[in-house]
Amino acid sequence: MTTTRFSRRLRLLASAGVAAALLAAAAPAHASSADIDTSASVSLTIHKFEQPATGTLGTNDGTKIANPGGTPLADVEFTVQKVTDVDLTTDTGWATASALTVADVYGSTATHTLGTGIVRTTDSAGEITLTSPAVGIGLYLVRETAPGTSSVVSPAVPFLVALPQPANGAWNYDVHVYPKNAVSRLTKTVDESKAHVIGDTLPWTITNDVSKAPAGTSISSYEISDTLESRLGYSSTTVSLVDGSTTSTLATPRDYTLTAPTVGTSGDVVVSLTASGLAKLNGVASTAKVIVEIDTTVLSIGDGTISNTATAYINDPQHAHGTSSTPTPSKWGALRVVKHVTGDSTKTLAGAVFDVYAVDPSTAGATAVVTGATTGANGSVQVAGLRTGDYWLVETTAPTGYQKLAQPVKITVAVGSTTSPNVADIADSPIPPFTLPLTGGSTGAAFTAAGGALVVLALGVVLVRRARRRA
């Protein structure tokens, strides 16, 4: 076969679905099918890497890339099948392969036959290596068939690869391929800055990459779901698309459908993009992000750790696999205030009234997050839920006969339940009773002298009245 004919066939293979990077632009005269060593062992190594946000893993010509710029993905399943009716040891076989597409060998329109699938999953290095006799000289269809536990959300485009590959005028029997993919980086955070007591708003933010699919494909379905646990009541949802410095608010039902529980109750919150929303996703950069904000209210604290997890299903309408966020906790505790007599904790006091502040009460504009917490007959009062952190107790009314605290008391609330609350012991001192001075002292003498003066004065008044009557 002439150099011109063989070069043309290689170019046709590249344009017909055999990955272009895996084929030489042209082959020297001596790299012909007649030169293939049919007794040689061949191998196919599939490398699965997370695609960099910008750039590529490197140039792949069928040889191993020395330092690919990506993170290996383990547990990704591939299925490799030989196109059994194409013989690459002959010119006829190469001529047939040069006109093939993936659709010709796989799917409802396939006109060629495939051998038994070889199913393997990538190891910790993101690799699968197939060697003789599992694979031999021939044309193979490679498909990514399951993401496993990896974050892959859009499988690599199926491709055809020839074993061996031409390389520097010879044949490369050790072929390496680097299929492209899209991955999901899903995170969930909670903003606790304004939540202090049960009933306060607790906002959750779910952030997920747009996860642009490989070239030639698109995002066909995009759903984010969040199951609010029983201690959270639903309030509202907003969805936005952030592309660089541009933020666009998506609207329902135009850009997405929203399934959510009744306000104040728990349940599933599901955001599913419509055709309009998908068009917007497919029109932005791969670095863009979808942000779903869900406002909730705290209904109870349970064991004190309220945790929530979001899941994204991208190009996965059947929910065969999803990418979940790391559980995000919001931490709470209960507080029990016990009021007792100074120096004797067994003598508890009813009727003490407290306000609770989340900042030092002397701070400008400080307002109480709990007011009027009053100790009962057992001398205690319990606040059912406070977010963990520092608080200040201000006694607004002391029990009858006792002195009110002059200064706020700072306390720290740790994670806990209503049955295992944080306890704050607060002591009050009795108001001192009025005591008469002891007799015999200088003060007693003064009282005696004052009493004598009053007797003399009273006697004078009597005498004056008698004198008036006589006159």
In short:
This protein is mostly beta strands and 471 residues long. It contains 5 helices and 32 strands.
Radius of gyration: 41 Å
> Which runs of at least 5 residues are low in confidence (pLDDT < 50)?
1-30, 438-459
The helix-and-strand class reads: mainly beta
Shape summary: elongated
Strand content: 35-45%
How many E strands? 32
Largest sheet: 5 strands, antiparallel
Task: Provide a count of the helices.
Answer: 5
Which strand order do you get reading across the main beta sheet? 14-15-21-17-18
Classify the helix fraction into a percent range. Answer: 10-25%
- The CA-CA distance between the termini, in Å, is 165 Å
Estimate the mean pLDDT confidence: 82
Summarize the structure in words:
It contains five helices and 32 strands. By secondary structure, it is mainly β. The protein has a five-stranded antiparallel β-sheet with strand order 14-15-21-17-18, with no helix packed on it. A hairpin with a 2-residue loop joins β17 and β18 (246-250). The longest helix has 29 residues, at 442-470. The N and C termini lie far apart (165 Å). Mean pLDDT is 82; it is low at 1-30 and 438-459. Keywords: Cell wall, Membrane, Peptidoglycan-anchor, Secreted, Signal, Transmembrane, Transmembrane helix. Residues 1-31 form the signal peptide. It holds the Pfam family GramPos_pilinD1. This is SpaH/EbpB family LPXTG-anchored major pilin. The chain crosses the membrane at residues 444-464.
